[in-house]
Design brief:
Largest sheet: 5 strands, mixed
Structural class: alpha+beta
CATH architecture of one domain: Orthogonal Bundle
Number of helices: 17
Strand content: 15-25%
CATH class of one domain: Mainly Alpha
Shape: globular
CATH superfamily of one domain: Cytochrome-c3 Hydrogenase, chain B
CATH topology of one domain: Cytochrome-c3 Hydrogenase, chain B
C-alpha cells in the first residue's frame, strides 16, 4: 500500500506513513484527485529531514470520510515533474515548496513566489521584483490596487490588466507581513502561548483556527474530549459563522451603495459578538478555546440569554434579507457577476462558500465531521451559478441554518466534566503525525503537526481556506467590469493574514 488511511484528528506514527519514490508519489496523489471528484488535496508541504526534504501529501476522501496520507524523500538538486501539470489544485502547494526549498519543477506553469518568508531558499526573490504577468498592447492598461488596502483590511497588491473597463486578467500578490507564525509554533514551549498563536492566525477566524489547534494538540496527547468541550466548540463555531456572515452582508450592501442594508446588517452583527463577550470576555472569542479544557462553561443561564439574542435577531435578519433579495437594483449587481464555473472551482480545489456557490459539495462538517456535527446531521447548502448572488445567498441560508443548530444545541446543555491538568495537558507523544480539518465560516481549515523524539513539535503546518481560493477570485472577475471588483472580492471575503503566515 502506497498510502496510509486515517480519520480526521487521528494520530499516527510518522514511520507508519509510507515513503515512496517521487514518481510513485506523483502518480498516486494526482491519480486520486483526477479519478474521483469526491477527493481533494487538503495539504501538501515539505520539511527538512537531515539533508533531504520530506514531502507529505494529504488527500481527503469526501465520500468515504477518510484522509489518504503518503510521503516522499527528495533533495533540492533534483528536477521533478510537477503535480500541477496534471491537476491545477496543486499549483500553490508546489509554488510554496519551490519557494521554501528551491526544488525545481520541469513543467509547473506558474512557478512564482507565494509568501516571501524570511527563510526562503532564494533571497534574491524579493517582493519588490515580483514577476507580474503582462500583455504588450497599446489598447490595454494596468491598474494597481495596494499594497495597503484602501479600506481597513491588510497588505495585498492587486494588478489588473484591462481593456477599457473590462478585466482581462487579475494577479494577486500577497506576502507582506512575514509574521513567521509556523516557526513560532516550534519556538514557543508553553501551551497557552501556542493557543494564543492559533487564535491570532486570522483575526476573523479566532474560533476556527483555535479549534483546529486544540484538536491537533489533543490528538497528539491522546486526550479524549468530553461532551461539554465538544459542545462549546460547536456553539462557538456557529456563532462565529453568524457574526461574520452578517457582517459580510453589511459589507456587500455597502459595495452596492445600499445604505439601509449596510446599517441594519451591521447592527445585527453586534448582539452576536456582544454575546461572545458576555460568555468569555472577548467579542472575537479570544481565550475561549483551549486544549483539554472547558475554560468558560456554557451554562443554562447563558443558554437562556442566547435564546433571547436569537429571538430578537432572527425576525430583523429575516426582514432585511427579504428587502435585499427582492430589490431589482441589488439583484442586478449580484446575478451573473463574478462567476466561478464549477469546472474552475473543481480544478482549483476551491473550498467553503467559493466551492459550494459553484455546485461543489465541500464542507468538512459533512465529509469529516468534528465535535457535535455528526449529531446535527449537517447538510451543506449548495448553489450552482457560481456568481456573487450564489455566494451571498449561501451566507443568508447558513445563518438560518446556524440559528437552527444553536437552538437544538442549547436545548440540552451538558454538564461540565472536570479534568486534572496532568491528564488534560500532558506532553504529546513521540514521532507522531496528525491532521485536523475544521470547517470555519470561510471554509476548510487544516492544521498538521509532527513531533520529534521527545514529543516536541518538530513541524507545524497551517492552511487557511483562503490559500485555495485567491486564484478562484482572480478567475471569477475575468470579463467583468473593474467597478464590480469590490463586490466580487467581498463575496469571497478571503483572508490576507490567514495566507500571509
Amino acid at each position: 500500500m502506497h498510502y496510509l488511511t486515517i480519520k480526521n484528528n487521528q494520530p499516527v506514527r510518522v514511520s507508519d506513513i509510507p515513503e515512496v519514490s517521487y514518481n510513485a508519489f506523483l502518480v498516486l496523489n494526482t491519480g486520486m484527485v483526477v479519478e474521483s471528484p469526491g477527493r481533494h488535496c487538503v495539504n501538501y508541504y515539505g520539511y527538512r529531514e537531515g539533508e533531504k526534504i520530506k514531502l507529505i501529501c494529504c488527500i481527503a476522501g469526501d465520500l468515504d470520510h477518510v484522509i489518504y496520507v503518503s510521503s516522499c524523500l527528495v533533495d533540492n538538486t533534483m528536477e521533478l515533474a510537477s503535480f500541477t501539470a496534471k491537476n491545477l489544485c496543486f499549483e500553490k502547494f508546489e509554488r510554496e515548496i519551490h519557494e521554501n526549498f528551491g526544488i525545481k519543477y520541469t513543467d509547473h506553469p506558474w512557478l512564482k513566489p507565494v509568501r516571501y518568508p524570511h527563510d526562503r531558499f532564494d533571497k534574491n526573490q524579493d517582493i519588490s521584483n515580483y514577476p507580474f504577468y503582462s500583455i504588450d498592447s497599446e489598447e490595454l492598461h494596468e491598474v494597481g490596487v495596494g499594497p495597503i488596502h484602501a479600506g481597513i483590511i491588510e497588505p495585498g497588491h492587486f494588478r489588473f490588466i484591462c481593456n477599457g473597463e473590462q478585466i482581462l486578467h487579475l494577479e494577486i500578490q500577497l506576502g507582506y507581513q512575514h509574521r513567521g507564525i509556523e516557526k513560532l509554533f516550534l519556538e514557543k514551549k508553553q501551551l497557552n502561548e501556542l493557543a494564543t498563536l492559533a487564535e491570532n492566525i486570522a483575526g476573523d477566524t479566532t474560533v476556527g483556527h483555535s479549534v483546529a489547534f486544540a484538536h491537533v494538540w489533543e490528538s497528539l496527547c491522546g486526550f479524549e474530549t468530553s461532551r461539554d468541550i465538544d459542545f462549546i466548540r460547536t456553539v462557538a463555531l456557529e456563532l462565529e459563522r453568524i457574526a461574520i456572515h452578517t457582517g459580510d452582508l453589511s459589507a456587500v450592501c455597502t459595495d452596492i451603495a445600499y445604505q439601509l442594508g449596510s446599517s441594519v446588517f451591521g447592527r445585527l452583527r453586534t448582539p452576536i459578538v456582544n454575546f461572545l463577550q458576555e460568555w468569555c470576555g472577548n467579542r472575537l472569542s479570544k481565550g475561549l478555546i483551549r486544549p483539554g479544557r472547558n475554560k468558560y462553561p456554557f451554562t443554562k443561564i447563558l443558554a437562556e440569554r442566547l435564546s433571547e439574542v436569537l429571538d430578537t435577531f432572527e425576525p430583523d435578519f429575516t426582514e432585511m434579507n427579504k428587502e435585499l433579495f427582492n430589490m431589482p437594483s441589488a439583484l442586478s449587481r449580484f446575478e451573473r457577476t463574478g462567476v466561478l464555473s464549477v469546472e474552475d472551482a473543481s480544478s482549483l480545489g476551491a473550498v467553503g462558500m467559493a466551492a459550494r456557490g459553484s455546485g461543489v459539495i465541500r464542507d468538512i462538517r459533512h465529509s469529516h465531521p468534528h465535535n457535535l456535527y455528526q449529531e446535527l446531521n449537517h447538510e451543506p447548502i449548495i448553489k450552482r451559478h457560481g456568481d456573487v448572488y450564489s455566494r451571498v445567498a449561501i451566507r443568508r441560508k447558513e445563518v438560518f441554518q446556524s440559528i437552527r443548530y444553536l437552538r437544538e444545541l442549547i436545548a440540552a446543555v451538558p454538564e461540565v466534566t472536570e479534568f486534572t491538568a496532568e491528564k488534560s495537558l500532558r506532553s504529546p507523544g513521540e514521532n507522531l503525525f496528525t491532521i485536523s480539518l475544521v470547517e470555519g465560516w470561510r471554509g476548510e481549515i487544516c492544521h498538521c503537526a509532527i513531533t520529534g523524539l521527545k514529543g516536541e513539535l518538530k513541524h507545524y503546518k497551517i492552511k487557511d481556506p483562503s490559500f485555495h481560493n485567491w486564484m478562484a477570485l482572480a478567475l471569477s472577475v475575468r470579463n467583468n467590469e473593474i467597478s464590480d471588483f469590490p463586490i466580487c472580492n467581498k463575496s469571497f471575503n478571503l483572508s490576507y493574514s490567514g495566507h500571509d503566515l
